Task: structure prediction
Amino acid sequence: MKLLLLSDKESEYLWDYYKPGRLDGVDLILSCGDLNSKYLSFLVTMTGKPLLYVHGNHDKTYDRHPPEGCDCVEDKLVTVKGLRILGLGGSVEYSGGPHQYTEAQMARRVRRLWWSLRRAGGVDIVLTHSPMMGYGDGEDYAHQGFACLLNLVDKYRPRYLIHGHVHVNYGFQIPRVLRRGETTIINAYERYVLDLDNPPEAEG
Result:
């Protein structure tokens, strides 16, 4: 199974210069936020594949103009194509804007999901906007990761944690693929194709 992972920057390859058949073989699309809702709707229309998303800290218009044909999994655990996917969007609180959370607020969001996680027998993919603390986050405060996500990963051991927020062109020299225990962490900036039958190797 192949997953198209997206975050933070609309890919010209997939939008401005899209050609039919370019995404043949993709079974599911996951968005980590901070993307134009029209872009997400376009990809659903072109591929006919399900698209799940969480909010980024810049997704201020989604309430008025949500991505059509897409499913928000914010604060939910859903099963799609046999994969248990948990959504926790937003970034660390740094300016008082929407979809920003303190560490305590994010920890409460995680705790509220314990029954869903128990009933499902765990989770395969954690879909976030912000990374975990110390795993792909930035040096500045606005791009620091959440410590509570470390606890989530250590307890439930998902196969993947997929995030955005930290652009690979920021100059932090952060690898795309990291690993903590049994969990592979992927930065989905712009686009990344994840082949579940051929998992990527950690780069750092």
Notes: Helices lie at 37-47, 103-111, 114-120, 148-156. The chain has a mean pLDDT of 94.
